[in-house]
Amino acid sequence: MKAVNVITALTLLALSALVLLGTWELPYWAEFAPGSAFAAFWVAVVGIVLAIALLVTTAMDHGGEPHSFPDRRGLVRVAALAAGLWVMVLVIPLIGFVPAAIAFSLFLLLGIERRPLVPSLFTTAVITGLVYGVFIAWLGIALPTGPFGI
Amino acid sequence: MDALASLAQGFAVAMTPTNLLFVFIGVTLGQLIGALPGIGPSAGMALLLPVTFGLDPVTALVMLSGIMYGGMYGGTLTSVLVNVPGEAASVMTAVDGNQLARQGRAGQALAAAAIGSFLAGIGAVTALVFLTPALSAFALGFSAPEYFLLALLGITATASLGTGSAVKAMIGATLGLMIALVGTDPIQGTSRLTFGSLELLEGVDFLPVAIGVFGIAEILVSMEQTQASAAVRTRLRDMWLTRKDWVECRMAMLRGGVIGFVIGLMPGAGPTVAALLAYVVEKKASPHPEKFGHGALDGVAAAESANNSAAHGAMVPMLALGIPGSASTAVLLAALVLLGIRPGPMLLTEQADLVWGLIASMFIGNVILLIMNLPLAPLFASVLRIPYSYLVPGILVVSLVGAYAISLSLFNVGLTLFFGMVGYLMIRADIPRAPLVLAVVLAPLMESSLRQSLMLSEGSPAIFVQRPLSAVLALLVIGSLVLPLFGFFLARRAARRAGVAEALSHSSD
Q: What is the pLDDT of residues A17-70, one digit of tens each?
């Protein structure tokens, strides 16, 4: 848990520095009122204080409670799902939202979960019907379409 | 009497066929979402919020709130039958509920939970009827300093009243404040932390954050292992309490309901803390504390009464002040804003039909849920037989389509995925996610009221303690920050004493 806490604290320090640097050019105080950088400055200060507090409490904690990470197989499944989601978002402009969702659903059920073909096809059909029925037909949302016209 | 007349008007709104249908849809979805491990009511509400875009505001809100309290009922089913809490607030129910199921008393455990939830829910909504107008009228006297302090208290209380590390809860809230800083400054109109991106000029929408941090992150965690948990094989008969069971549970339901409502009123605590506290109190009050952990029916009744009561209690500050006390009410508040309604003390007068219709719908929803959880419990239990992996692609696709529907922009879909990854890393780093979402919701109110206050006082922070009410709120904020520090030093002192005792016992060996 110690390593995770140290990484968390360092990430928070970096984000606080980013907030400070990103608002450096903005006024902290404009003539009669707090300026655009006022809240950003104090949020960054709180971030730095909390990062230091986490580092100090972690250093003072001698319990050494181990962190529970998923096993290798679990990590591969999570990474595959995350990759599948990002690929889906990237191909939406090329093939359309609904075909990308169909491809993603089949990848998840057949590729990651190793489910049988027929229930996977049925599940994908139900999902497609739900998206079409609720978002396209009922709410009238124009989802991006691809070369297939859907 | 005014409140009762308004409530009667609310029933007229809630009893229209469309609203009744959406109360039913909301509580049914809540029941199912609560029963599914891996996705909680706040995630379910965030995922389904885009579906309400085409609805009338009252209809949308009765459905979303139905998901919120329906989830409290649904979580019991998985806790009792599978020993996996369907949502966090049912964690204490799993302890004794599953033991009862293994003893062949699943029916009694589910009945105690359903009846306790129903009675506590109806009691909490009744209290809501009288407390909301009173608090709302009181809050009409609030000005910028009080609003800043109240919003700040909403965030700091999350840290001190939560169940985990206070520092980590505050880190979650700070991340939320950082996200809320992105976009155009609400007072001066300059762009802030957009790094040249035009898409970020309008700031980060609440929904991509909520859908990502709650929905997608929970799915990613559930993917770490194949879902192989099996339900206890039991016949769900005798779904009622005997006279002996009722005598055993009635005070537990009352105590749990009162504790839950009070905890629900507090910002940052929520149903999980309420269930934990009610269980601990019940164990102390029970004539048979030794049964706790081995199948205590009153333990189940107390925890379930408390979590449902807390879910309703959290509506009071949300409706009266526009300050959400929990992650679920934060989503509900965001729904109000998305539907073009301004939350705050004026809500009750400006949108009386909406508020009273919503409150009346909760009475109706609790009755529907009681029916669903007594005679229809076996039907919902059969849903647990559907392998979770078949539900995952549907949840993810609907999440992403919903994120797209907010502004018809693929940028928001990418943002949702980004926050999904952030939420996953937060879970792995043990950082609570509710403070982040609460901070994103409360940050605009907090920043504008802070800057208005300092504008009024020409930069003097004394404005935050000048009026008695703001001074009290300032003290509460300080108290909520000092409380975890106090707890930390007490824990260290106890650990040191335990270490000394252990060293002495070793030396005597």
A: 999 999 998 999 887 788 889 999 999 999 999 999 999 988 887 766 666 778
Q: Are B433 and B112 in contact (CB under 8 A)?
A: no
Number of CB pairs < 8 Å for A and B? 174
CB B184 within 8 A of CB B198: no
pLDDT at residue B508, as a whole number: 40
Do B170 and A139 count as a contact with CB atoms less than 8 A apart? Answer: no
Q: Does B53 touch chain A (CB under 8 A)?
A: yes
H or E segment at B294?
A: none
State the pairing for strand pair A33-34/A29-30.
antiparallel
Can you point out the beta strands (E) in B146-217? 183-184, 191-192
Question: Which residues are paired to B192 by β-bridges?
Answer: B183
Structure tokens at A90: 């990237």
Going by pLDDT thresholds of 50, 70 and 90, the confidence category of residue B58 is very high
Among the residue ranges A95-104, B114-123, B203-212, B228-237, the one predicted with the least confidence is B228-237
Place of tokens 């292992």: B225
- Asked if A118 reaches chain B (Cβ–Cβ under 8 Å), the answer is no
Q: Do A15 and B178 touch (CB under 8 A)?
A: yes
Task: Return the CA Rg of chain B.
Answer: 23
Residues 6+ apart with CB under 8 A from B231: B81, B82, B381, B384, B385
Asked if A91 is an interface residue toward chain B (Cβ–Cβ < 8 A), one would say no
User: Model's pTM, two decimal places?
Assistant: 0.85
Positive or negative, the Cα torsion across B209, B213, B219, B223?
A: positive
Q: Which residue has the tokens 């729904």?
A: B335
Distances from the Cα of A22 to the Cαs of A18, A45, B173, B191, B250, in angstroms? 6, 14, 20, 10, 58
Q: How far away is chain B from the Cα of A144, in angstroms, using its nearest Cα?
A: 9
Residue B90 banded pLDDT, cuts 50, 70, 90 = confident
Give the burial class of B479: count Cβ atoms within 10 A of its Cβ; 0-12 exposed, 13-18 middle, 19 or more buried. middle
CB contact under 8 A, A8 and B429: yes
Contacts of B496 (CB under 8 A, 6+ apart): none
Q: Which residue of A has its CA nearest to B439?
A: A43
Q: Which residue of B has its CA nearest to A97?
A: B401
Q: Which of these, B48, B49, B62, B41, lies nearest to B363 by C-alpha position?
A: B62
pLDDT (mean) for B369-388: 82
> What is the distance in angstroms between the Cα of A137 and the nearest Cα belonging to chain B?
11
When pLDDT is cut at 50, 70 and 90, the band that residue B363 belongs to is very high
Contact assessment for residue B8 and residue B355, using Cβ atoms and an 8 Å cutoff? no
- Tell me the two tokens of residue B351: 């949108």
> CA A15, CA A20: separation in Å to the nearest integer?
9
Yes or no, beta carbons of A34 and B430 under 8 Å apart: no
Which chain B residues are within 8 Å of A23, Cβ to Cβ? Answer: 181, 192-193
